[in-house]
Structures
1.
Amino acid sequence: MKIISWNMGCGFDTGGYSKHHDVALGWLRAQEPDVALLQEVQFARFASWKGMRVHSVPTSPGRSSGNAVAVRADRLEPIGVVIEGALVAGARARVTGDDFILVSAHVLTGERQEQALANFASKVSGMVAGSRFVVGGDFNASLHWPKYGTWFFDPMRAAGFEDTRPQPQEVQSYWGRGSMSIIQDDHVFVDRVTKAAVARGSWAILSGDDHRRWSDHGPVVVEALD
């Protein structure tokens, strides 16, 4: 199973990354992921993806961009998820022979981020309980700041969310304004069975010249080998 989680940097209809969005989407399609968890994707330019089922949730009513779950499956069942301080697209689908709950998340920054992260961990842990799952996105949370361990990473781990990153050190995934070399905002979490399959596969954050031109975040690419 190939998973790509990516904040595509096009939360607004205008802006520096918007002009590259079609090229970035072409690259994404060419990777042929089984699961794509996307944030800040423009829906009109993403409407058709041959062989993939897509569920999208706008940033706010009437907006033309937001989060999406895309899956290579015959059937996708959207799950309605409302979490204060976060935008979430959730769905159930059968992927590579198993039933999964899939979540694309974008946790917003601000004074109430601690509560938003706690809300997310609590809500989604109940949502995926007893299921195979892939939960990924831009959490605006990095181990570079110890408070995020207490706020987010420790509660997620205690709730059974396995971080797919194979090493303890983070890898830079964000290079926008004010970024630092070790900031990793983007993460993919899975259940224990899927984590074992990821350990036999691969994990990477892509940050080549093209990826940096297309978005202020790099795609997280995870391959799980059963």
2.
Amino acid sequence: MKGSLKIIVKDVETGVEEIREGNNIIVKNASKLMAELMRGVSFTDPLRVQVPGILTLAVGTGGLGWTLQSPPIATSDQEQLETEIFRKQFDSVNYIDTLGNITPTRTNIIDLTTVFSVSEANDALVEMGLFGGDGATSTGGGTMINYYTFPVINKNNSVMSIIWRISF
């Protein structure tokens, strides 16, 4: 399993776009959620027959003492964001074919797209992660799947779109 992402930040006044692309790290706990999904029963609630998959994208401002232009490299040991400030469900989830196009046919590649409006997640952002499983829609909840750190994006007066691609 591997992941990559594209971040597009568009200033709403000037129309100027900043585009960044990168590869994220699949964290160790991702395998626990995958096992739950395959088992079909929630670890935290054995009476629950269906376990939610990846549900949300969280963004944060990093840890105390981080250098914002050069944050620490993401590691697979990460279980939560260092300082989460906003979490949002996806605007769309799509299967992607081998040519990179959206397809209605099930494939081994998915794109998870989240759009943060002008009023959402305004801060000096340096980290983000995908969360699934029970509690994934609550700050600090769920199981982290992917983690990514990056040089600071000062999001204000802008719309930020993130397209997170996972290949299985």
